[in-house]
Write a structure and sequence with these properties.
single chain; 585 residues; alpha/beta; 5-stranded mixed sheet; 20 helices; 47% helix; disordered N terminus
């Protein structure tokens, strides 16, 4: 069952219809035949599902329940036992047994959290998930070493040369999701042939695994953008590249990408190749055609100048403002530097990174709680079933102990929650910068707009009630959070975890200082949105034919009624309070 996203509508059909109207071709270009055949050879339902998911209209991930997850994990364990050639998997089990772990500990590769990644990456096709998991363990054991079988990766696992390549910015995770909540990996394609294949391999694995570290990303998948600037057709000295050498280099690079994508615990929902207008386009399409294989039906080609490429990507819900490449082909590194700094901090302080609270309604809680299903009385278990349920009980006890230790540690250290990538339902506040390309803020603006008239036509108590109900809807119904930007460290903080003083006593109970701060920001968002709408209405007044000659008689520019304060349309500014500089709309 596919999950429909809010506001999706018929965007995929409308976008395809516009493309057909703009192009006089009735058939795709010859170099795209293979990709077109891969899509049109599918059944109508499968083809329609993929097209809608590429455009961000729906998600193919099935609905999950504790019973569904429990059955899938049991079937996955059975399939893993049926696979004979699984050297890295067996090595992980041997390391676990040889280290004499107690009865209250579970092997890293046996945890539900680890295994559910592979089930979600294959849409709960158990056989494919088992094969992917075995392939992944073999890959990381060869690339990183045996320690990759017993713990998550860290930046410290990369060598100096590998870190230098990562900082170069050829591969970057964008700091925000697309409109459907999918993470975005941008590959700035160039002709650097001095990078060893293993270096590319290790960096790519690390990025994919980090991106798949939360449930929303696992369900929604990843978008891959291969962005090729004008420098793709020339070498470092500016000379035209040799076609044979050029083709061989890119074949090796694409092969590395395919190896990683076929094994990592995260699925590809769309691949966008952005190419300049050049005679080398046919060379690239031949390379991609041979390499993409099962992902051919999800490939989209875009050709043209930089502004044309960004305009085409924007039609798929991708925040093109964040693409880390300039029009001349240079790599932007500002967001990457901030991300590396964040990863270094959270890997040294793992308790500071929390994606969602482990409440009974959260997705992560479901990952842990579904293992507690009881066995019917009198039911005789086979030896394989006994081993599986014993592993589940050990894991459940271990997770409970870890949660208790984390809670005690947070209470003692009073740690705040750092958010690496805001979720699609999170509302973010950042001073001096518009954040409307974030899907959570777009949702928040639509909610404000829907209740703006009600907010204007009520008293102060009614306005507070509207603000509180909106906050509760986002937190409880949508599972979102309210985040604020820490300009000192350049990362997002969950406002509910920031230490504040000044609790308020009300008839309904004690309101924490964090809740009061969120209410204040939402109230200012109502006020600022109202100002924005009024300003836009004023601009719609028709101008006279003599407007171009206005104030050419030497009179100065008329000062606005706001005095020295400033206001603008797209960026809402105000200096009436400390909160007013935080931008949403």
């Amino acid at each position: 069952m596919r999950r429909s996203l809010e506001g999706g509508g018929n965007q995929a059909e409308e976008h395809d219809q516009i493309e057909r109207q703009q192009s006089p071709r009735t058939e795709p270009p010859a170099q795209y035949d293979e990709f077109s055949k891969a899509l049109w050879n599918l059944s109508f339902n499968d083809r329609n599902a993929i097209i809608e998911e590429i455009h961000g209209v729906t998600c193919m991930a099935p609905d999950e329940s504790p019973e569904f997850l429990n059955a899938a994990l049991y079937s996955l364990n059975h399939e893993l036992n049926q696979i004979e050639d699984k050297s890295a998997y067996n090595l992980a089990q041997e390391i676990y047994r040889s280290n004499n772990y107690g009865a209250d500990q579970c092997a890293f590769v046996n945890t539900d959290k680890f295994r559910l990644r592979f089930l979600r990456s294959e849409l709960f096709d158990v056989k494919k998930a088992a094969a992917r998991m075995v392939k992944y363990l073999d890959l990381v054991c060869e690339a990183y070493g045996e320690y990759a079988l017993i713990r998550p990766f860290r930046l410290s696992d990369l060598t100096r040369e590998e870190m230098s390549f990562l900082r170069g910015g050829d591969y970057q995770l964008l700091p925000y999701r697309d409109r459907s909540g999918r993470r975005i990996l941008c590959i700035v394609t160039n002709n650097r042939d001095d990078i060893p294949a293993k270096t590319r391999l290790k960096v790519l694995i690390y990025l994919w695994v980090v991106a798949a570290d939360d449930v929303e990303s696992q369900r929604n998948g990843m978008i891959v953008i291969s962005y090729s600037g004008p420098k793709i057709t020339t070498d470092e000295s500016g000379h035209w590249v040799n076609s044979k050498k050029h083709k061989k280099f890119h074949q090796s690079r694409v092969k590395t990408h395919v190896i990683v994508v076929s094994a990592v615990p995260m699925r590809v929902t769309a691949v966008h190749f952005c190419l300049p207008l050049s005679t080398l386009v046919q060379v690239f399409t031949q390379i991609y055609k041979m390499a993409m294989g099962p992902w051919s039906s999800r490939v989209k080609f875009h050709m043209g100048e930089s502004i044309e490429l960004r305009y085409q990507l924007k039609g798929y819900g991708i925040p093109v403002e964040l693409i880390p490449a300039t029009d001349t082909g240079n790599v932007k590194q500002q967001n990457l530097k901030q991300w590396i700094k964040l990863r270094e901090y959270v890997e040294m302080n793992p308790h500071s990174l929390r994606r969602v609270s482990l409440s009974s309604n959260s997705d992560d809680a479901m990952d842990y709680e579904h293992t507690s299903s009881s066995i019917p009385q009198g039911y005789v278990l086979s030896q394989q079933q006994q081993q599986y349920y014993q592993m589940q009980y050990i894991q459940q006890y271990q997770i409970q102990q870890q949660e208790q230790q984390q809670l005690q540690h947070q209470q003692q250290q009073d740690k705040i929650c750092i958010v690496e990538c805001p979720g699609s339902c999170d509302v973010v506040f950042r001073r001096g910068k518009s954040m409307m390309y974030h899907p959570g803020n777009a949702m928040f603006q639509s909610l404000i707009q829907s209740r703006l008239e009600e907010h204007d036509n009520t008293n102060q108590a009614g306005r507070i009630a509207i603000v509180i109900s909106l906050i509760q809807y986002i937190e409880r119904e949508k599972g979102g959070r309210f985040l604020t930007w820490d300009s000192k460290n350049n990362w997002w903080l969950d406002m509910m975890t920031i230490p504040m003083s000044g609790s308020h006593y009300s008839p309904v109970g004690i309101i924490q200082a964090q809740e009061l701060e969120i209410q204040a920001k939402v109230s200012y968002a109502f006020r600022d949105f109202k100002k924005k709408m009024k300003t836009q209405q004023d601009l719609q007044v028709s101008l006279s034919s003599t407007y171009a000659f206005e104030r050419q008689d030497g009179s100065g520019k008329k000062r606005s009624k706001g005095g020295s304060g400033s206001s603008c349309i797209d960026v809402i500014c105000s200096d009436s309070s400390e909160n007013a500089g935080d931008l949403l709309l």
